[in-house]
Amino acid sequence: MKKNRAFLKWAGGKYPLLTDIERHLPAGDCLIEPFVGAGSVFLNTSYSRYILADINSDLISLYNIVKDNVHEYVEAARTLFTPETNQSDIYYQLRSEFNQNRDPLRRAALFLYLNRHGYNGLCRYNLRGEFNVPFGRYKKPYFPEAELYHFAEKAQNAFFFCESYADSMARADANSVVYCDPPYAPLSATANFTAYHTNSFTMEQQAHLASIAESLVSNRIPVLISNHDTALTREWYRQAKLHVVKVRRSISSNGGARKKVDELLALYRPTTL
Fold it and tell me: What's the pLDDT at 249?
């Protein structure tokens, strides 16, 4: 079956792992994703409804605009994808405008521009909350019109919330399935790429996420979590059934050095009666 691509580039996006994730995601009525990111899992599953959350307010605002007003959004964003805007000095002008602009539609259009023209599709902010990814130098950044319309159509059965993982997991009921894709635990002390947003994800939060999963499964709500396969993650997810998958990591400036690493899919599934 053809897989649907997200309209955003995203560090750690789940597109390469979709087959494995779908294999282990339990059936249910509502899928809750506390770390929705670019939404690849949402776009490639068929639950009746979705609760999709992230702490990045720019991301959630963008998704609500695309859901409610996709035609106006596509027209606003398309004007930013021209040869004239694909230049370093214009990029930095528009990045500066994004950091000062509070108009939701303009900010959402600029967010897509920065995502597609910035280095490696990264989404990163400094401690003042300013987007600070450098220019990416791509020949012709792709304008994802078809992907935007597909997202908007699928989003009619979704609700988007800017909130913490604990708050979105608290929305789970007996008909829910929860899929968590937290910022990954580092493979080493120097590989700590978790600062997608100004708050980076701490070891305490990783352990807290696992403890919430344990409490949900005790209430008969299944939870699937993806993360790197390390001694720490195996300790955090010791109550889950662990599945190991190999994936090629794509956040690297040297494409030839993108090695396959082991990842875990930790499934908390209620025991059958």
Answer: 62
